[in-house]
Amino acid sequence: GGSSREIRVVSEADLKELLVSLKPKLIKRASEEMVKTNEGQQVIPTEIFSIEAEKYSAEIGDEEETVSLELTLKLKGLAYTSQDLLEFAKVVLTENKDDQYEFIDERPDLLSKSPDTSNQENVNHQAQLEAKISGRVRAQIDTNQLAESLVNMEMEQAKDQLKNNKLLTASWVRFSPQFAEWFFSKLPSSASRIIIQLEE
Hints:
The protein is of the alpha+beta class. It has helices at residues 12-36, 82-96, 143-150, 155-163; strands at residues 42-56, 69-80, 101-103, 109-113, 130-134, 137-139.
């Protein structure tokens, strides 16, 4: 006769499974804490982390019914103030505008979010921020030069030229007094008599 008992031996797979199951829980907890403890700043947690310490209650080959893991992670996040982002937005918009336009928004529209990391190809070792930035610009138009270009031009030709000017969204040409157009088909022969008025 005799007796037998089931022996539970800790394997490498057991330790790996424990680590895999614990990591997302710690990342979630760290992300929540990161957002709570940064008052006055916008904080975007990432999934970029490093393992600072890990301690298993048992080693491979030990006879144990249960195994526990004490795990310490360091999670990266991106912290910024709204003013930081606005200043950056102004620089980006100014650098990417056409030289014929000037940037006029003091507070550009800004929408930010953390990047999609569901695709592992998008994950690297840097904290990232996706932002959509939009702002208003104004065309820099030399009114004297524009008036010179219209001197002695037929009315319809002047209208077409202004219509095709990419710096203008709309344009009107009219004589003053208005009845003068009954007697003249061309614009004045002197640029000083052509008045250009710009509206935003």
